[in-house]
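Q: Hi! First time doing this. I have a protein sequence and I read that you can turn it into a structure. Is that right? Here it is:
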Amino acid sequence: MTMTAKQWLVELSDAMREPVCQIKGGAVAATDAFNEMKRLFIETKRSDKAVYWVGNGGSAAMCSHLSQDVLNKLGTRTYVLSDTSLLTCMANDYGYEAVYAKPLEGLMREGDLLIAISSSGNSKNILNAVAVAQDKGARCIALSAFDADNKLNHAGADVSLFLPCALYGHAEVGHEALLHAVIETLWLENKTNG
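A: Yes, that's right. Below is the predicted 3D structure, encoded as structure tokens:
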């Protein structure tokens, strides 16, 4: 199958226009999910809690990028758990499925916020991290793609965003754009009100 750059961009645009959104498992409009994500970031900062980020591959790189934006633009404590030494230590001692869950067991506190990103929505290490966050009383924003029946999309996150697309590039660019939108609109609001 061949695809032109224009076709690729059209498919991305279509996926971004039609995200499937949930708040606590109930279907909502994208605007409502966006506003709830903003509220979670605001509440995390206001209560002096932390944001944790988990993802694999390109999603892990996205986590690193967006985490520094949250610190820089929102002044919120934020941590990425994809440091090479930490990942290899956890994978060696507990298996790859626990590379995020095990650190979160010791670090995460009630009221913290987990951003869990998985294009497939079926990565066991991401699902295990979400389970730990829920056990700890933390809040969770989950972003997935490909198949709406994926496990992350139905993991009971506070906010779940599913992009109806089939390519990793669409999922990754789309997830990053959605998170950038939340971070940058909050930053602009803070600049205006601050």
